[in-house]
Amino acid sequence: MSRRGVVAAGALVIAAIALAGWWFARDRPATGAAASAPARDLPAGEVSREGAAVASTTPVTDPDDPSPAIDATHAAVHAIGRGCWAARTPLVTAPGEPDDTVGRMELRLRVEIAAGQARVADAEVVSTRRLTDELRDCIVAGVTAATWPTAAPDQAVTIVELFRMGDYLGPDRSRPPPRPLPPAPR
Amino acid sequence: MSFRSSILVSTALLLPSTALATPTINGKVFNTEALNGKVFNGKVFNSQMLEAVSTSSAWKDGAAIGGTAVDGSGLAGWGIDWSEGDAATWEWRTGEWYVGTDLLGQFVNAIDGYSETLRLHIDAIQAAEDGSDTLLHWVTVHSTSTQQSPNGWMPETSAPLCTDTDGNAVPAIVLRGEWSSAEGVSWGGDQISDSPYEITFACTNGALGKCAADCDDAGTCAAFGVPVALGYRRWAAPTWWAVEEDDGAIAYHWRDYAMEHQSCTRMIRADYCGNGKSWTETGTQIDVYDRMHDNWWDEVGSVPPAWFFDATWNEDGAVAVSCGRVSGDAITCEGLTTIGGPLMMAVSVFDRVIPAPIVSHPLACLGTDGLEDPDVRLGNLRHALPGE
After folding, report:
1. Which of A66, A163, B184, B199 could form a disulfide with B53 if both were Cys (CB 3.0 to 4.6 A apart)?
2. Which of B177, B253, B258 sits opposite A101 (nearest CB)?
3. Average pLDDT of the segment spanning A144-163
4. B296 and A182: CB-CB below 8 Å?
5. CA-CA distance, B191 to B263, in Å (whole number)?
6. Is the domain of A109 the same as that of A43?
């Protein structure tokens, strides 16, 4: 391993420890009065505006920790990407030529979060590779127009998302196919 | 934005395990003797190229298979193991469960264009080393006497899908999608499908496999038929990277290794023009470095001087090449129809290289690694040739 590799590995260890700490701490209830408040289930990502009485039911987040904002944005924009893929006009290509599954795009997003709602204040296409104009435009327009709920505190965060069209294919892991008959005994 | 000033912060940032295999042996092959890990170069099926394998063709004796797709460096999907009797039911299967699976592959004879469908059988699957997500697949190709060629009925035969120069079986890594074996077109040597329902068996002695394999223990991996592992695990799910930008702010990048892997295949094959044509001489030693610091150069200036900066690369081919590059062939990208891809430059220093039509970044003349250019993903050093 090179010297820089050692440095990188060290950084990884530190990052992993910090990540683990954040992971185990993120769902802990708040202490004090808030923790004694009656439990109340909120839909995922929804933030109550009733004050501290229900604060314990929302994830405890460090105002400087961008993870909740990033996670919510990531889920929201890829739902848009998946929808654009499903609604696209399939690209007709000759055998041996690239199809539309190889399309990819990096999209820089300036995300603003206020009062539990996130929106894209600015979107810039950083790069595309073999992505159809239709898919690019659909994703950019969809992301720019959307808002989504988040448990993250008010903040602004810059994200460079990667959209890979091949990710929007694949078997449904949530539902097995119909059970076939077992093979006849020999 | 400056990637060179990138920093890691304590969010969900992950680096792949540090790859080894530098310096490595540059091979002219993309994946075995011709393009794309799809060359079937056994004695019986010589000249036959594997064009495509669809997961929809998969079956496995004693099991039911449904919804099979490429996942990671192997297969995954729903499967029933009938040996479990009344308890047999659909379960999500992965990795080694697919030992014994058969698939149908479309082979094309490179000489006469004759096409036929042959059976691929996965004989064994094993991780490259303990804890590795690099799954090695040993695959055999079977023909049957029912297949007919223009020259008559073919005898029933079998041979390994991937072999070394001595004909010994070597493993393959399953990659999602398909690569083009064409030359002289903008997609030559590039991925032409990223569908999880299309399989590329990337032989570990070809460019696709060498660039994708990841390994910490060189001895173990070499024993399993993985002589080179550059660690660009294109199957790895993207991860978040925190990047300090020029204004000091942090931006969070969702990044994968697909483009590093593609860049690596350009480099391994010396596909300067990014059109699928290889310019390398097999056996040239190279030392690989990259922007993400999985690999780093440390050989320049060794005594006696033996290593030189050779070229920098991205997914579209070379970004720049050494001004002192020695070559017996003219490198020209004429006729290339690029999609925004960079063309390379070469400046004659020893009157042994051909001045290139387009001059872009004369970085190598300065003796730098070239990573200051944001278009560059990785670069390589080259060992001096005899008498150089």
Report:
1. B199
2. B177
3. 94
4. no
5. 11
6. no
Which has the higher per-residue pLDDT, B371 or B136?
B136
Chain A residue numbers touching B243 (CB-CB < 8 A) = 160
In a domain, A180, yes or no: no
Q: Are residues A11 and A40 in the same domain?
A: yes
Considering only CB atoms, which chain A residues are within 8 Å of B254? 74, 159-162
Residues A7 and A77 both lie in one domain? no
Instruction: Say which range, A94-103, B179-188, B376-385, has the weakest mean pLDDT.
Output: B376-385
Residues 6+ apart with CB under 8 A from A100: A88, A90, A91, A93, A130, A132, A135, A165
* Tokens representing residue B324 in the block: 């002192």
Q: What is the pLDDT of residues B158-171, one digit of tens each?
A: 888 888 878 889 89
Q: Could you tell me if the ipTM is greater than 0.95?
A: no
| A164 vs A102: CA distance, rounded Å | 7
The answer to whether the Cβ–Cβ distance between B192 and A102 falls below 8 Å is yes
Q: Which residues of A touch B88 (CB under 8 A)?
A: 182
Query: Residue A56: CB partners within 8 Å, gap ≥ 6?
Result: A29, A30, A34, A35, A37, A39
CB spacing of B18 vs A14 below 8 angstroms:
no
For the residues B108-116, what does the mean pLDDT come to? 72
The position carrying tokens 């700490």 is A21
Residue with tokens 């690099």: B134
Nearest to A166 among B14, B195, B252 (CB): B195
Residue range of the domain that includes A130 = 67-168
3-class secondary-structure state, position B252: strand
Residue pairs spanning A and B at CB distance below 8 A: 151
Alpha carbons B319 and A17: distance in angstroms, whole number: 38
Q: Work out the pLDDT band at B147, boundaries 50, 70, 90.
A: low
Q: Decide if B192 and A177 are in contact by the 8 Å CB cutoff.
A: no
- Tell me the CB-side half-sphere exposure of residue B102, using CA atoms within 13 A: 13
d(CA A150, CA A47): 7
**B61 burial type by CB count under 10 A (0-12 exposed, 13-18 middle, 19+ buried):** exposed
User: Could you tell me if A114 and A142 lie in one domain?
Assistant: yes
Task: Name the one residue in this structure whose structure tokens are 């892991």.
Answer: A173
Asked if A174 is an interface residue toward chain B (Cβ–Cβ < 8 A), one would say no
Region class of B154: left (phi > 0), else alpha (psi between -120 and 50), else beta: beta
Q: Which helix (H) or strand (E) holds A137?
A: helix A133-145
Domain contains B388: no
Number of domains chain B is built from: 1
Domain count, chain A: 2
Output the pTM of the full model. 0.77
Is A176 a domain residue? no
Instruction: Indicate if A110 and A133 belong to the same structural domain.
Output: yes
Burial class (CB in 10 A: 0-12, 13-18, 19+), B54: middle
Q: CA-nearest residue of chain B to A94?
A: B192
Least confident of A36-40, B365-369, B381-385: A36-40
Q: What is the pLDDT of residues A24-37, one digit of tens each?
A: 433 333 322 222 22
What string of DSSP letters covers B89-143?
--EEEEGGGGTTEEEEEEEEETTT--EEEEEEEEEEEEESSTT---EEEEEEEE-
Give CA–CA dist B265/B260, Å, rounded.
Answer: 9
